[in-house]
Request: fold
Amino acid sequence: MRNQPDWQPTAARAALKNRAQQSAFVRGFFSHRDVLEVETPVLGRCGVTDPNLDGIFAQVDAQGVEGGWLQTSPEYHMKRLLAAGVGSIYQISKVFRNGERGRRHNPEFSMLEWYRIGFDDEALMAEVADLVCRWLNCPRPKTISYRQAMLDWAGIDPFIIPDEDLRQRCQQWLEPEQLEGLSRDGCLDLLMSFAVEPNLGTETPVFINQYPASQASLARISSVDGFDVAHRFELYIDGLELCNGYWELTNAREQRIRFEADNRLRADAGKPEMGIDGAFLAAIEHGLPDCAGVALGLDRLLMLKMDTRDIADVLTFSLERA
Reply:
């Protein structure tokens, strides 16, 4: 499709048919489990503080609201629904992330996000495996801790390696001057991307769990073998990260502390500070039920189904033709 005129789609009809079948499968999967489909705003008043994500600002002037953000995930709005008592929910939505374009990324992409009341991360991992493995007809994933994955493929213990040794290990991919402004977690992310991820899920799907507490985002934290780890997991198939899930944090005070820490990291990285979503925190304060949630990239799931390594092959129009 690459040599056709720009008005033509980048995806073949077979990909469009598979996407329709995938959407029908997802809806049937959750209908059978009595999980409610919802729809939340694509344009919100607030963006996210996560230093690893850059939102896309939208100029809006309506009834006193000036400006908004195309959502990087429906998470905040969906959790507000959970706090309102709607029960377990899922959503198929378009989300947006600035600066992300490549064979695995498009700034606009499709996400499946769902939350299960009363689940922890282990229970949700089992449900993720049910959905993904039925659709792809693949073996059920095995589980490897973040620490073990780093030991096996990067040759380091991420919890005890000194910062200087960690930076030296990263010099295989970045020059020393490029590493100067990189945080410890930034170095670990670099090793995960280049040394670990290409080896994950090449024979059978793999869940990575027990991430360092500093990478918890919106997940709960507990102690394992004397180290604080997050109740967070990611699924990899053939080196491709497919989803990111948490046993969700329900403490509003702790959540605010994390948002404030995010903004400090953004400042250190030269990124603008993001306003904290007060409506989201108010919902958590009101009472977020005990739950686990996960965001899964539907375009990437379709890439695996179609056996392609380029996201443009499963999009009607990638950014260059949109």
Observations:
- The chain has ten helices and twelve strands.
- The first strand starts at residue 36 and ends at 37.
